[in-house]
Write the structure tokens for this entry.
Amino acid sequence: MEDFVQDFVAETVEALGALDNDLLRLEVGAAEPDLVPRIFRAVHTIKGTCGFLGLNRLRRVAHSAENVLDAIRKDRLAAGTEVVTAILGAIDVLKAITDHLGATGSEGEGDDEALINRLDALHEGASATPAPPPPPAATLSAEEAALAAAWDATPAHIPIPEPVPAPAPAPAPILAPAAVPAPRAEARPVAAGEGAAQSIRVNLDLLETLMTSVSELVLTRNQLLQLSRNSRDNSFAGPLQRLNHVVSELQENVMKTRMQPVGNAWSKLPRIVRDLARDLDKKIEMRMTGAETELDRQVLEMIRDPLTHMVRNSCDHGLERPAERVAAGKDETGIIALHASHEGGHIVMTLSDDGRGLNLVRIRQKAVERGLATEAEVAAMGDNQVAQFIFRSGFSTAAAVTDVSGRGVGMDVVRTNVERIGGTIELSTKPGKGSVFTIKIPLTLAIVSALIVDCAGQRYAVPQISVTEMVQAGEGGERRIERIRDTPVLRLRDRLLPLVPLRSVLGLPRGEPGKEGSLVIVTRVGAYEFGIVVDSAQDTEEIVVKPVAPLLKEIGVYSGNTILGDGSVCMIVDPNGILARAGRLDTSAGGDGVQAAAGAEGLHGSERVALLLVRAGLGMPKAIPLDLVARLEEIAVDEIHELGGRMLTKYRGKLMPLIAADHGVAFEPGTRKPVLVFAEGENSMGLVVDTIDDIVESDINVELRSGRPEAIGSALVGGRPVELLNASHFVGETAGTWFSPPSVARRPRGRRVLMVDDSPFFRGLVGPIIRSCGLEVLATGSAEEALARLEAGERADLVVTDIEMPGMDGYELCRTLKRDPRWAHLPVIGLSGHAGAEDVERGMAAGFARHLPKLARDDISRAIGEVLQPETCA
Amino acid sequence: MTEAARDIRSQSVSVVVAGQAWGIPIAAVREVLGPQAITPVPLAPPAVAGSLNLRGRIVTVLDLRTALGLPPTAVPERATEVVVEQEGNLYSLLIDEIGDAMDLAAGTVEAPPQTMDSRWRGLATGIVKLDGRLLLLLDLDRLLGAVGTA
């Protein structure tokens, strides 16, 4: 008997959950022919089963609700608001009783008379007119009988002749909550008439126990692997390998059993929204997409309440009343949209409304009132920054504390809950347009693979997912860490990898020379790759990620912490945070964080470039934009050969022409010289210098134009005069002689590019890039000059322009050209120091064919090729 | 409020830090620990001595001395610790020694003197005169706030 009751509870909970949305669809008049029969069947099944089990409270409520549904089904009653509300009320009572039944084994006490009377009144009102009320459930219509027969095919409905088997059932409370219930795996028919079921019902506790066991198993396997690695006995290796494999597979599959569609956490929301809309006199439409996106059950449970709270908030505060909406020119029905999707190891949920947006004025006031910020500070903050205040403790902006959201739970609780599971929440809002909340949460809280590294005597975990490789960079070895002034770099194959010593990021004391930091963990964050320097690495370990304590959250370099196999706590470093912090360390030399941030802001659109400072010969240091340099190499002077008065070396299986950056560069046999390699397509050339001194980021202000072709001029970089080398000159020098003739042959005849840039420095850089595409360049120093040249009859097939220029800027130039029928056909490519999404959008609006960052050599040549089709550029 | 609940509220566990007795609300105290392995957390606020593993839960260790503006505990791994729970999170406080639990009748608690060190005044909700010594009542909320903003 007990089993029947528990099965009934499980089935009923499920059936009732499914009903909510069906009923809501019914109310909005969804034209689904099977909607009403489906609802009717579900309630009918519940009624039938509980009658059989002797659950009288449930039976009476279900019976009255069924009668009303039957009336709707037979078109005797319209499914208006009053009717649906009464049915929803009945469903609520059914749920409450079922819950009580599940928890205690009995229906509990309660008075359902009012509800039953209301349902019966509706039913009688309907049946008074056309037909007499059908006698209660005893007789069934033919259709009903058929349905009932179909549904009675479920095992719970097989009639048992004797009421109850002889032994009196033990009181449920003693058994149910105490022990873990025995695993029940009972076949559950999906629908009548189908064959064997493809899924079974499994007790949740069992799944949890399974997961815990697997976690333990994983940790034990790790210990075994460790032991085997340290042992000389190889006989375990084979079986251990298999064990390893099986455990991994097991772990993966057990994790899968825990995955559930996120829609399960959303199922109650439409009902909540409907009820709120009624209570608040608003019209609200709820749209949900991506409900099938799966995530770990545990995460799902933890996100449910915060989400519900946020939806309530959106209904209450976010959306306006219909009249207000209409006055604002919007549809009177407000929309709340919920969307979920996978993104990497995360699930991203967005909750948006098209309501009034946050009252930023009020938030600013309140932030000041509460001493969270000064007036000057809030005035300086951007709107979205101000909006984040609502996540602060005890911050509620509802002018009138309503029943809905004024219950002491605020967005700070939501944030805390989201962060507790390692997630983040963000908010953007536009006055009058609505708000968008973005929640990013991990797919699972369970186990991730991490690399355990040593640094200054402590262990840290680096998530394996962001590690691409490890490089041992020992002293005197093949690879060593080099310093360009204070910036450590590693030559990794054909790249210069920026390095971030974990010691300096974490502010740890420096180790003894030779012992510290020799292992480079090559890490990828987005598209950016860098190396974290640690002392050594131990092993990879499967770790259970636990969120860091609130006190440590602010640090930003830890994504969590964990307990290692030996029981000690280990911090998990977040490569993203490390990078952010390292960046801050770099710029903080000039001032405090705020200023550094302001400096970074100032970079947008300005023309700061990373310059490689080198020395070659005597005279002032020389500088060349780092972006133009493909690689830095060191080449033995003995490997340099002379041929026809030119220098050559063998490089990557090819001959590479070399050129000295200055006549004074000394080539002493037995030494090695640093070489800056420039690459163009398949070809490369090397510029030989004496030393590489530094990489600096600087504004470029050419102070003195140079008369010599190999230099653009001199400029002040960091207060020191440097000579800016003209890379194109060197490339051109070698190209004429050494680069393969086809690039010359391919040169489209007479195609001409009008280049506009106020900076001679950039004209000197961009010009050669365009020329290298085989095009002629007509360089001008301003938009006005460019227009004048066109007016004067100069011919051009393409315009490549800088954006920010004194006088007319690049956008305006483009618009001017597009307005003039003579030049409207001219494609325009915009180049700027910084091409963010917004800039690109603005450029496209102005009519740019392309909008690219300056010095993105490959992108520029590709874009020119595409724009000037069919004569594509190499 | 039941009689028992009121009792809990007015009870404190006394701990000694650098010779001064402090009272910690007994409702917040979870357990007392002997010497523990502590993992340092670089970049954490100065009063955070590190983290420790308490039967699978990770607990943040706070050095009360640092929080009180005193020189840090010399060897945190050897100190006695008292574990408290605040808003669902566990914190372990490094102390010199643990004393008794005591019931503080409502009338005996006074406001800390205005002349007391401002940092201490910020952390103490009240002061109780005991035989021969003074007990300062530690406010855990304020302690965590002070640690976080330090």
Observations:
- Chain B touches chain A at residues 37, 39-45, 48, 50-53, 56, 58, 60, 89, 91, 144, 147-148 (CB under 8 Å).
- The first helix of chain B runs from residue 3 to 10.
- Chain B has one domain: 3-149.
